User: Fold these one by one.
Assistant:
Number 1:
Amino acid sequence: MSSETISEPDPAGLVIYVGQDRAGHWLVQDSRRNLEGRFISYGAAMSYAQAERDIYHASVEIANAPLIPVISFAPVGRDERALPRAA
């Protein structure tokens, strides 16, 4: 899934991927699919990935295939309820 390794992988094998989905959105995802972020640029995505790498002692890799979003970017449907906003 990656072609370039940015840092040494950790023994547990957690990898944070930076790449684009088929629509061209910049995404950051981890190999356990617990982390996902959407960004406006490669630089913003990479900055976030590097900060998360330091927190989780993971490696960062550039995805060479489109990433598949875990979280849908589709608008909320009429039949779906929005979460209440915090005050």
Note: The mean pLDDT is 84.
Number 2:
Amino acid sequence: MSTRMTADRGASAPGRQGRERVADVNDVHLCLQSFGDDADAALLLIAGATWSMDWWDDELCRRLAAGGRHVLRYDQRDTGRSSHDPAGAPTYTGADLVRDAVGILDHEGIDSAHVMGLSSGGGVAQHLALTAPHRVASLVLISTSPAVPAASGELRLPPASSAVRETFDDPPPEPDWSDPDDVARYVVDAERPYAGSLGFDEARVREVARRVVERTLDVRASLTNFWLAADGEPVPGTLADIAAPTLILHGTADPCFPYEHAEALAREIPHTTLVPLEGGGHEMPAAVFHDIVVEAVLAHTRRD
């Protein structure tokens, strides 16, 4: 169960929802938003590469809050309204992103929280569980892959689909960064190869893309810098050393991290529950999965 520090570190008044504010963390500004009652168990959401907190579905956050969780989502560096480095010149590492998650908890006066990470955010969550285990009450890993070595040895996992690999090997031309509509189209097209067998929800992705472009301080940096940042110092330990109870939610049609990646996590991390999302891709769980996700996350985070 998540607990709160006795010292007042700027936590906001209880009971309100959707409050957006800026935290001064590790010499940068990180924009965050909360849903639900501050007195409830904290659930920290960590988004994937280049994703601002806008990608966490509003309705999903509200439903988790209605289930008695204090939901926190935030813009990582170079996304949304958080601090940005110049495009092409990130000054942070992956290790800094892990420290930022701890800094968010410190700012909010939260001693330990349930941590839910998606894609590369799931990697940040795994590193956090190893480097600061006392801050992680439990893990929820969505559409992610092993981010630390396995105790059983090298994992041989299937690669991404050819369509996904092509986005890295032969990226499309950059948009006109001064044209918000062109950038939004670019974001939508970038997400298209990651859809599962249920199809690509273009209307939803387009709506989120518009909001991302409107909120982001430097959208070019947001969409490019993550891939240039160094990993930082290695994290000690293996997947078997993750002590936090872990829930894995993974699309069975994920074209980036095929389902075998989730099965490997479930084998290697102790105290793990694996829930398949039938036909889901490498994406924020679609509305059709919200009942499954909410039920599973609330049950999992109800543990002491």
Note: Confidence is low (pLDDT under 50) at residues 1-16.
Number 3:
Amino acid sequence: MTQAPITVLIADDQDLVRTGFAMVVDAADDMRVVATAADGAEAVALTARHRPDVVLMDIRMPRTDGITATRAILATAHPPKIVALTTYDSDDYATRILNAGAHGYLLKDATAEGLTAAIRTVHQGGSVLAPSTTRRLVAQTGTARTEPAPAAPTLATLTARERAVFDLIVAGASNTEIAQRLHLAEVTVKTHVGRVLAKLGVRDRVNIVVWAYRNGAVLTGEP
């Protein structure tokens, strides 16, 4: 049985950008564009109409900006995953749209492969952050290191299985990948993810990654 393609809505106020992203998405065998929007208000309306799996959301748009549109979309009964796509490599924008509930934050200079991989990752329950944003988190907090850091007190509240799930989330694994790595049912992984979120006091998987960097729970792998 053929799996249904991942449906995508693209919101951007520049026609050429929408067209370019649409060509990239439609070129992938496992996804298709169902609608495009020229501003945040239109994105909200078209999301309600087409119910896409993933929305690629620009941040600076006329009428309704991407942050406001993200909040409105995620407040609906069956919200899609949202990936912010912006020209502006800004910590302020990243923080604001992630706090609004976006599942990822990428720059528009991402490669075609990087964009489609990000869509698949968030669709499967993962999260994505622009490499430059991640590097600044490291630089600003000074917490990523090449040797294990003293665990933040909150990490001690995680069980061994929850800590394993936490580590794989930070590494960018989706629920499906975590299930395969830990030999668990995917529904069990979802339960563990929920417990990790509750114990860390964060809203979603992206904020687990941010929390990990801010609390010294990430290894860079090299100096």
Note: The chain has ten helices and six strands.
